[in-house]
Write a structure and sequence with these properties.
single chain, 1 helix, globular
């Protein structure tokens, strides 16, 4: 019998992001391995800002600063 592979979603925590200009981004993935309970929001914010920087380098469109960060409801 074949082994079941772990679900990829189990390795991530999802966050909803609202930017200063009012735009929204839903269910942004952050690696769960780096999240510590006491510093969860700070780590997630750093990861999302890094993702935004990489996206802006490729697309040429810059995202504004993050206004609100909240864990997505599943």
């Amino acid at each position: 019998m074949a082994k079941k592979r772990p679900r990829i979603e189990d390795n991530f925590v999802y966050f909803d992001v609202v930017y200063e200009d009012g735009s929204k981004s839903s269910r942004r993935k952050v690696n769960a391995a780096g999240l510590a309970r006491d510093e969860e929001e700070a780590f997630a914010l750093t990861e999302i800002m890094n993702q935004d920087r990489r996206i802006s380098e490729v697309s040429g469109k810059n995202r504004g600063p993050v206004k609100l960060l909240a864990r997505s409801a599943m």
